[in-house]
């Protein structure tokens, strides 16, 4: 059958829309309207496929009961439309009462009667993105000529739909980047938490076109979420809003489960907030995290007319919540620094002393390629390392990580380092050094502090490396000839936890191709802005790339990779690396 002039004009009109910048909804409505007119039918609808579930969602409908159709979902493979989407082949049904596959659920819910229909797939790169369905032909029924006409129309329509959604997605991503940029700028606009979070809440209100936004943080003493800032909430209630974590309120559940929640009908969920009285049924809430730990909840509700919450909106809200979490951490650090300003001079002196304890000039160790570096999370840190000559043939290596951070950890670190070094000069067996040091540190750790330690002794003549471990599980040897990484394990708990603890000495023979590298958990646990850790996988990649180079090149590369990964996020823990290999 040859297409008529009127048919060609309609198809040409859709083709022109392929390059238009119209909203997806407008294009879909035009397609449904034209499809019904082309086939002289009472109505038409477009169902799009959810690529994750396979279910079909009515996006637009033209004709009888069109408004009711928009809330319906057709299960995967169900009815004529579901079969067309799965088979990617058209169907004609001229008497629905005799068709066993006809899904009558649509008619029951819309109170309409579908006498006949024709459905064709909307294909993009041989993937069904939807179904175009035309119902109730005015001249009696549909035939193969209608199929040819509608399929030609649908081919162009699929391109128009795909392009419209693609363009909309690009616009949405650009807006998201703009919002995140503006929020990041608000972080440095003021150091008053209430001012900053109120500005962020106001921006979120505009982003999601919703009247009510609340930013709540956990008050650990009260074991409750406390409202810090919000919009659309009665000012008389703002200071009083507290949600106990043991309650069944949405925000409490989101906090405890560390998982997002959203609905467009809160009544169906059986959830209410009598105090704040939600006027509409839509609600979104996501956890605010600090280093992957939930510290608060960001919620959005009362959407404006026509706004529907979706999984994509929840993902955007979670991304914004990550920025809110970072802002929370930044302001918290700033406030703590202000509160401790009176101790600044004392801390500066302690930092100078700590830096003096850490060896930085390794030139006297001429038989080794040796490097070390430490970056404290606080002004002063609890990590430490040391390298010392026991005699002409033996060199001692130690790395440690004190529990806690800041001033207490740095003081306990100084004591631990001194005790270990004193026993290292008296005893040659690494396990004995740790045993004796543990007895002293246990007596001095009444405040509950402890330290993980790895201590080893290298024999420069035999190249034997003997070592013992006290709960420090991040020391490795990279065998350059086999390109393999081995953990230098060993039995032993951290020093200072219990008295009369035994440790074991282990040994291995090193070659000039081997790199021994000792790190603290601050390396593996370094977080980026999304709260993701650097992890062993990234450490392994750096070792495989730089393990055959000098110890200095390896240490510099590892710190560089950690800094790039962190994206400016302040370290949660001290970061320390000590590496050496035979020269």
Give structural notes.
The structure is a single chain. By secondary structure, this protein is α+β, with helices and mostly antiparallel strands. It folds into three domains: 5-168, GAF domain (Beta-Lactamase, 2-Layer Sandwich), CATH 3.30.450.40; 188-339, GAF domain (Beta-Lactamase, 2-Layer Sandwich); 344-582, PPM-type phosphatase domain (Phosphatase 2c, domain 1). Helix content is 39%, strand content 26%. The protein contains 16 helices and 22 strands. The longest helix is centred in the N-terminal third of the chain and has 44 residues, at 144-187. The termini are far apart.
Notable characteristics:
six-stranded antiparallel β-sheet, elongated, 22 strands, 3 domains, Phosphatase 2c, domain 1, Beta-Lactamase, alpha+beta, 39% helix, 583 residues
């Amino acid at each position: 059958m040859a297409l008529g002039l009127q048919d060609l004009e309609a198809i040409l009109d859709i083709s022109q829309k392929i390059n238009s910048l119209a909203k997806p909804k407008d294009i879909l409505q035009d397609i449904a309207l034209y499809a019904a007119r082309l086939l002289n039918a009472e109505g038409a609808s477009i169902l799009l496929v959810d690529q994750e579930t396979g279910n079909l969602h009515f996006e637009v409908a033209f004709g009888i009961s069109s408004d009711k159709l928009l809330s319906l979902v057709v299960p995967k493979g169900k009815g004529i439309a579901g079969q067309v989407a799965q088979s990617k082949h058209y169907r004609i049904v001229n008497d629905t009462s005799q068709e066993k596959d006809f899904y009558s659920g649509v008619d029951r819910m819309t109170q309409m009667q579908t006498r006949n229909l024709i459905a064709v797939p909307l294909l993009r790169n041989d993937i069904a993105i939807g179904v175009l369905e035309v119902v109730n032909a005015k001249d009696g029924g549909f035939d193969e000529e209608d199929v040819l006409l509608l399929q030609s129309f649908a081919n162009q329509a699929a391109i128009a739909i795909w392009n419209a959604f693609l363009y909309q997605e690009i616009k949405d991503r650009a807006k998201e980047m703009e919002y995140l940029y503006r929020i990041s700028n608000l972080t440095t606009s003021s150091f008053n938490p209430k001012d900053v979070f109120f500005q962020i809440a106001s921006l979120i209100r505009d982003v999601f076109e919703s009247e009510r936004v609340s930013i709540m943080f956990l008050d650990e003493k009260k074991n409750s979420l406390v409202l810090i800032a919000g919009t659309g909430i009665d000012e008389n209630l703002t200071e009083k809003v507290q949600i106990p974590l043991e309650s069944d309120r949405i925000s409490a559940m989101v906090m405890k489960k560390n998982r997002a929640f959203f609905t467009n009908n809160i009544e169906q969920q059986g959830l209410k907030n009598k105090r704040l009285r939600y006027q509409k049924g839509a609600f979104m809430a996501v956890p605010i995290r600090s280093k992957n730990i939930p510290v608060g909840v960001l919620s959005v509700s009362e959407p404006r007319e026509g706004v529907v919450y979706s999984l994509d909106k929840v993902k955007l809200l979670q991304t914004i919540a990550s920025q809110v979490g970072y802002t929370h951490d930044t302001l918290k650090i700033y406030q703590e620094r202000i509160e401790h300003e009176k101790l600044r001079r004392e801390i500066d002196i302690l930092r100078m002393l700590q830096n003096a304890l850490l060896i930085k000039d390794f030139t006297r160790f001429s038989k080794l390629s040796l490097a070390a570096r430490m970056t404290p999370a606080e002004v002063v840190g609890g990590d430490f390392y040391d390298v010392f000559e026991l005699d002409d043939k033996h060199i001692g290596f130690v790395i440690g990580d004190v529990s806690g951070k800041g001033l207490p950890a740095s003081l306990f670190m100084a004591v631990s380092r001194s005790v270990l070094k004193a026993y290292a000069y008296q005893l040659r067996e690494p396990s004995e050094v740790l045993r004796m040091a543990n007895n002293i540190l246990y007596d001095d750790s009444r405040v509950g502090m402890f330290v993980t330690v790895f201590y080893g002794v290298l024999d420069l003549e035999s190249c034997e490396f003997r070592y013992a471990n006290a709960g420090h599980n991040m020391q490795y040897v990279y065998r350059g000839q086999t390109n393999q990484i081995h953990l230098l394990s060993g039995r032993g708990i951290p020093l200072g936890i219990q008295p009369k603890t035994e440790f074991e000495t282990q040994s291995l023979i090193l070659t000039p191709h081997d790199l021994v590298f000792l790190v603290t958990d601050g390396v593996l646990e370094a977080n980026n802005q999304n709260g993701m850790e650097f992890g062993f996988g990234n450490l392994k990649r750096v070792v495989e790339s730089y393990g055959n180079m000098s110890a200095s090149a390896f240490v510099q590369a590892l710190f560089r990779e950690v800094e790039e990964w962190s994206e400016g996020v302040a370290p949660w823990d001290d970061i320390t690396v000590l590496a050496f290999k035979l020269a």
